[in-house]
Amino acid sequence: MTRVLQHNYGNPSSHLHSFGRDASDLVEEARQRVALLIGASATEIIFTSGATESCNLAIKGVAEKYGHRGNHIITCLAEHEAVLEPCCLLESRGFDVTWLLPDQYGQVSARQVDEAITARTILVSVMAANNVVGTINPIGEIGRIAKRRGVLFHCDATQAVGKIPVDVEAMGIDLLSLSAHKFHGPKGVGAVYVRGRSPKVRLSAQIDGGGQEHGLRSGTLNVPGIVGMGLACEIARDHLDEDADRITPLRDRFLETLSKKLPRITLNGHPQERLPNTLNIAFGELEATELMQSVPEIAASVGSACTSGTDYPHYVLRAMGLSEDHATNSVRFSLSRFTTDEEIDYCIERIVDAVKALRGHGSKLPTCQTCPTACCGGPEQCGTVEVELEADQNGSLRDAAAGSSKRR
Ligand code: PLP
Hints:
Layout: H1 2-7, H2 18-38, E1 45-48, H3 51-66, E2 72-76, H4 81-92, E3 96-100, H5 110-116, E4 121-125, H6 139-148, E5 152-156, E6 175-179, E7 190-194, H7 223-261, E8 265-268, E9 278-283, H8 288-293, H9 315-319, H10 324-328, E10 330-334, H11 341-361, H12 379-382, E11 389-391, E12 396-399, E13 405-407
Parallel strand pairs: 2-3, 2-4, 4-5, 5-6
Antiparallel strand pairs: 1-7, 6-7, 8-9, 9-10, 11-12, 12-13
The structure holds pyridoxal-5'-phosphate (PLP).
């Protein structure tokens, strides 16, 4: 990407000069790499700014193009907002939307989809893997049913691509959304797969302009981002099994050790059918926000990080039938290709200490700023004076007066 930023600043739509043609060659190479990762042809890949745009293009694009055939769409209440919101919008414009309820693991069944299809159904949209609990849906079965019933199938595979095998042909997927940053690519770039034959899927563009990407997504292409995504696809493809084999035992050890060391730990999501890297855990009777605030050096998520930074009890957990308290006590941990044994050990130790401290002291105890893990039991017992902290350039919290530093 750095090389492209420095040396390949041509516009890939400008074919008259070598700068443009070089940029175009890089884009086409990346297109091929994205296609290979999901079993598609390069001509079926449309570049976008990420999965939100891809889902919007797929869902609204089908609704507008096929609306004359029917006005019914099927999706699930556990989908990401990138799917829920376009469906809500279409509902407000007169479409009928069936909102399937996931089971207690966050999974929808092919049978639920089959039973919901009517003569007016034009689209089924079901995610490959859930972003909150990591549960994997039976995508191949849903694809087969959609095909048999003559309905288009969009799959938001943002959490699955690059982590588990995804093959649009084998799974009967007609439209697929993905985002590069979910598999170590850059942020702000993604793609939508649009089936080119059997059947050839048609979409109404949602962004009009210069007609790039076969007229489906106008706007100058983000060449460095696309090149980065292409490379991330190739690396993910080469390491798919190896990454999963390495990360899954780490994920399991994390959960098992926490469960041994702490009472009232529960796993949210499917015990087996889930992503290798995702773990959603409820810490009984302890608010997730309070817990994670006391271990700020651990980057985990309460609520939906990929939404807007809010920490409301997650709607996915509520849709799975979990209580509001349970949802409020739940944290999502995501491992990556680069997560180490030492990092898992560190997280276990810090979380166990924090949970014990919070439970031991009652989770509402005031904490002094110099001791944010509450290990001292608050300002009175701590004996330290409250100090004014400011962030230094490295993101460390510095005591403005004394100059001492604490990692954030
Ligand atoms: N779909 C799923 C399942 C996601 O997890 C996300 C983001 O986390 C998105 C869609 C939206 O992706 P982006 O923010 O890259 O547009």
